[in-house]
Automatic annotation (TrEMBL):
Subcellular location, record wording: Cell membrane; Membrane
GO BP: any one term: protein transport by the Tat complex
MF (Gene Ontology): proton motive force dependent protein transmembrane transporter activity
Chain intervals for the UniProt region annotation (Disordered): 1-89
Protein keywords: Cell membrane, Membrane, Protein transport, Translocation, Transmembrane, Transmembrane helix, Transport
Bilayer topology annotation: Multi-pass membrane protein
Protein name: Sec-independent protein translocase protein TatC
Spans traversing the lipid bilayer: 100-121, 156-176, 197-221, 241-266, 278-293, 299-318
Keyword Ubl conjugation: no
Organism, scientific name: Haloterrigena turkmenica (strain ATCC 51198 / DSM 5511 / JCM 9101 / NCIMB 13204 / VKM B-1734 / 4k)
Compositionally biased residues, Basic and acidic residues: 1-11, 60-69
Length: 324
């Protein structure tokens, strides 16, 4: 009778389990007492129960419920480089078509300016011829023509110069419209500030050539041959020199802009340019003798001196404003 409750307890499963031979104590894997972590949505999870998200280079999320990885928008990021806000992908054919249409507009303006120039080419030739020689009208040597098409070719060249002057602002505007979607806002401001300045400098260079350099040059030519021979200026060759010198000085007057842009972009410094000035002087002399060669050497000397003065003047202004 005394053993019956014990047997009944065994039958009801109230006895403590006994360890089997060969089995060790229960293994504690460390999860039993580890606190749960709550997510932003209030759900709890075990830290080691869920995989960690990665992007191949580093951890993106610390748990599965963290959400999707924050990757850059492919429309705003190409190869890790952000793109302007207005930049849109276009087929290559559309880009070429737009470029051709804008170039056609530039040609149209240039052709219109050339046609207008042809209407008054004869009067323009006479005016320029009498103006570049520093003498009275009756003392200016007359132009000579040495082949049948020389007069017409000179008219066309002079008219084409007017067409280029008319087409240049149009070219600047069409280039800006073509590149505008691919430019950042600060780059657009930079373009709109530098390009018109370049046009103004080109106009100043042409005016400098016409008002100062050409009269001095032709006065020297006249004095150089005076007393030894009668001067016979060929119409075509004379205007070739005028057009070449005027166009080259329009490019020469871009030197201040090039220097300022290089310093602003961090390509060089004013101090480095000042230290290497002799090399620049030699380069200016070489370019002037290459593009404005004449037997008297007067034209390349005038151009080289102009380039050096522009270079040194720009460095002086930069030093005055405190740019090193």
């Amino acid at each position: 009778m005394s053993d019956e409750p014990a047997n009944r307890g065994d039958a009801e499963g109230t006895t403590e389990p006994q360890e089997s031979p060969g089995e060790g104590p229960p293994i504690d894997d460390g999860r039993r007492d580890e606190p749960s972590i709550a997510t932003d949505g209030g759900d709890e999870y075990e830290p080691d129960d869920r995989p960690v998200e990665t992007d191949g280079e580093g951890v993106v999320g610390d748990h599965a419920d963290h959400g999707e990885a924050d990757y850059p928008d492919p429309d705003d990021d190409i190869g890790g480089i952000s793109t302007p806000p207005d930049d849109e992908e276009m087929p290559l054919a559309d880009h070429i078509e737009e470029m051709v249409l804008r170039f056609a507009v530039v040609l149209l303006f240039g052709a219109t300016g050339t046609a207008i120039g042809l209407l008054g080419a004869s009067e323009a030739l006479e005016f320029i011829w009498l103006d570049v020689f520093p003498a009275q009208a009756e003392e200016v040597p007359p132009p000579h023509i040495y082949h049948p098409l020389e007069l017409w070719m000179t008219r066309i060249k002079l008219s084409a110069l007017l067409g280029i002057m008319v087409a240049l602002p149009t070219f600047v505007y069409e280039c800006y419209k073509f590149m505008k979607p691919g430019l950042y806002p600060h780059e657009r401001k930079y373009y709109l500030a530098s390009v018109p300045l370049s046009v103004v400098l080109a106009a100043l260079g042409m005016l400098f050539s016409y008002v100062l350099v050409l009269p001095v040059l032709f006065q020297y030519f006249t004095y150089y041959a005076e007393g030894s021979a009668d001067i016979a200026y060929a119409l075509g060759e004379t205007f070739d020199l005028i057009i070449t010198l005027t166009g080259f000085l329009a490019i020469v007057f871009q030197i201040p802009l090039f220097i300022m842009l290089a310093i602003m972009m961090g390509v060089t410094t004013r101090r480095w340019l000042a230290q290497k000035r002799l090399y620049f002087w030699a380069g200016f002399a070489g370019l002037s003798f290459m593009f404005t060669m004449d037997p008297t050497m007067m034209a390349p000397i005038l151009v080289a001196v102009t380039m050096i003065l522009l270079f040194e003047g720009t460095l002086l202004v930069l030093k005055w404003v405190g740019r090193d």
